Amino acid sequence: xxxxxxxxxxxxxxxxxxxxxxxxxxxxxxxxxxxxxxxxxxxxxxxxxxxxxxxxxxxxxxxxxxxxxxxxxxxxxxxxxxxxxxxxxxxxxxxxxxxxxxxxxxxxxxxxxxxxxxxxxxxxxxxxxxxxxxxxxxxxxxxxxxxxxxxxxxxxxxxxxxxxxxxxxxxxxxxxxxxxxxxxxxxxxxxxxxxxxxxxxxxxxxxxxxxxxxxxxxxxxxxxxxxxxxxxxxxxxxxxxxxxxxxxxxxxxxxxxxxxxxxxxxxxxxxxxxxxxxxxxxxxxxxxxxxxxxxxxxxxxxxxxxxxxxxxxxxxxxxxxxxxxxxxxxxxxxxxxxxxxxxxxxxxxxxxxxxxxxxxxxxxxxxxxxxxxxxxxxxxxxxxxxxxxxxxxxxxxxxxxxxxxxxxxxxxxxxxxxxxxxxxxxxxxxxxxx
Length: 434
Fold this sequence. Notes:
The chain is mostly helical and about 425 residues long. The protein is about 75% helix and about 0% strand. The chain has one domain: Growth Hormone, Chain: A (Up-down Bundle). A two-stranded antiparallel ribbon has the order 1-2. Helix 1 (about 15-35) runs antiparallel to helix 7 and helix 13 runs parallel beside helix 18. It is globular. The model has no long low-confidence stretch (mean pLDDT about 90).
């Protein structure tokens, strides 16, 4: 039975991780759906008779609606709690996946992708909101990093395993199976997850200002967008994440297949390496930031190394397979530094607006990726030499190089924005100013 009596005893660590982990599973589903088109490129182009630009737009619909829902997701998480928001989102996501899997036209497939993106958009923000109640503040970057690990494991599942499933049963059947898993998750989250430890008779880790829930959505949003460092971290996160999500999430596999002649599953193994690096980098760099009591220094170092990684990819020809695996792992690992930005942004803002600031900053992560995915497709089509294989367009190395140049430019921009931020020393400025 749920207890509402006040208590001074904090929740057991195992209970905190279980509660938070179940809700974080929705982020796993969302990440799986995010990068799934990368191993279906040929099937989608053939089934819907589309070009690279149109495929980029189809994939990017997930990102556009995801980005558009970030601020509403944050406001909802602050107003009604992560449990209700996440449960409803999982149900809608399952419906969107079914619509996408059964689509017989491009507009229906696009609607399905849009529904998936809009619904799973709440996952990361809800995870951050829940973490603020179930874990101490000095573990926030670590916990947020673990959420990135969980999400990227979903991306890993959408690599070689999904590629094999698509080859075996087809992309539509594989997507329908994932819809069933998502619907089951909705039931589990509703039955187990609680927004605050007090609902299970324990003391909360949340700041009193966050527990009072007295801040209106309008004031919350006003405070967040008026903070200078919010915008610096908004652009930094978007510019460091977009190259990874664009390459590993859509264009990396066809590039490795068409330019380097790899089998699709082998190519997916390379992009999976990037996602694995991303998954590991998040929690490790987040934990490092928590341990040394700094946000700007580790974030800036990761952003700089990330930009150098993309520059090396563009400038060094004829890398061996092992060197390419190592380079992709490094690029992904250093991109995980963006997790520090979420703890960073939380500390520069009012604690009562934790969900809202998470939504604002995360909007750039997916919004910029959506723009880049579409832009890459447009650049590829502009440089297409007319080659076709079974109805699908084939692009040469020069076309891909022209498109991928902007990945390095994006990563370099992230370095600039992180450099302009002000250090918080892992403390809430709200408390420092009080």
